[in-house]
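note to self — DONT lose this again. spent like an hour looking for the file last time. sequence + predicted structure for the chain T wanted, 146 res
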Amino acid sequence: MIIAGIGSLGVADAKEAPFYTIPSPDHPPTWYVSASFDKLDQSLRWSSRDQILSLDITYTLQGEWPLHDDPDLYQGFTVHFPAVHLDPASRQLYFASAPGRRTFIGSVEPSFFGRRVVLDRNVAVSAHRRNGVIDAAIIIYPPTRP
């Protein structure tokens, strides 16, 4: 069973320096290095079967394509975050920030369409095309003070 994330991927204050960064080891290649793509969507999902957090990203390259009926070309990418784990009792997502220490980054919650990944307020997802490949990371900022 795959648990999909729909909606916001986290909000963080861009003025703060990251507290932790969890990079994805995946760097899938894109169509063209120099082409102009627009990011249409990105969503997190937790796979109960594979026990892994994944980020699905969709880009489009708009233009006139004489051999295609649809003038927009779409390409989807998936990157994984194997360092992120799920505590089955609390449904909290975490990573081991130090030996024996868990840093919680969000949760897997029920939703209208099944389940969704909800990141904590101080956690954000960054995914960008660079030099013809996708780079993605989960960025954890210091907790905000009330």
